[in-house]
Design a protein that fits this description.
Elements lengths: L1 H17 L2 H12 L4 H7 L6 H40 L19 H15 L3 E2 L5 E3 H4 L19 E2 L4 E3 L5 H9 L4 E10 L11 E11 L4 H16 L5 E8 L2 E10 L16 E10 L1 H6 L8 E8 H9 L12 H4 L7
Helix pairs in contact: 1-4, 2-4, 5-8, 5-10
The structure holds 3,4-dihydroxyphenylalanine.
Amino acid sequence: MDNNIDKIAQKALEKIKNADVTELESLKIEYLGRNGFLTQILKSLSKYSIDDKKSIGSKANRVKNIIEKEIENKKANLKEALFDEKMRKEKTDCSKSFYFPFPKGTFHPVIQTIKNISTILKSLGFLVVQGPEIETEWYNFEALNIPKSHPARDIQDTFYLDGLKNLLRTHTSPGQIRIMEKQKPPIKVIVPGRVYRNEASDAAHSSTFHQIEGLSVDENITFLDLKMVLTEFIDKFFGSNLGVRFRPSYFQFTEPSAEVDMQCIFCKGKGCGVCKNSGWIEILGCGMVHPNVLRSVDYDFEKYTGYAFGIGVERIAMFKYGVNDVRLLYENDLRFLKQSEFNY
Ligand code: DAH
């Protein structure tokens, strides 16, 4: 019997060595299955003497384990070889373009401009916050030191809602009040968003447009801080090292107030149609936060000072991309929107 088991083992190992995956499965049944050679031997042990039972049984079990292991090893080797073969045959053609049935989308130039402006201002320490588009007179006007008699509050310029109770914000400046109400100084935020004015649209005006408000309030904030931040911003955004100047102006919520001009990017300051031959274009409004504004949010205006600025997004986008009619930004003509300069 011992010899018989050896023979069986030898033959099995020989067969396993040369088997493929399916042959391995049948060998498993042939030797280890319910009616397999080794199972048969183990089942027939009752015929033998106690000593023979022991020796034949343990040998048969040993051989069974060896065969089982060899089959598993061979299976693993075959699998690996198959994978290697596949890898050898499969070649990736990197020059082949991947077919995707939909054209890749892009950001709208206004959104792209907001993103670019925000990225620069974030790098200068500003946090981005949002304010509501539906506002009350308090946030949009009163708290910003814009008196009841001011013409901007006229029904002509403001879209009033709910019988004058609410309105569509006419600028992002109410964002200043909302953040100061919520937080104590130091504050350094920008508020990007959509604003509304009740006016006819033409090449330079649209009843819906976008602004980015800036506000920084703390102890010892000066006009110099404002100048540094805005000069750095303009340099980074337009990247053309053009001159920047601060021109005295007037806004109710800032004192002193200024408008910031930069040298015309089209003629580099020489004078052209866009800058009306002045060599300068107006970029944004700014100033030191008016004490009345600080008072309206119960800030100690003896202790704190701050600066604010308001950037017209469309205006900046038009200069940056050389667009001469604001309406082009809203018509959604794909030939216009797909221009490569918007997509980077
Ligand atoms: N809110 C002004 C507007 O809509 C823009 C502006 C000017 C905002 C000066 C400011 C500022 O924060 O300091 O025309």
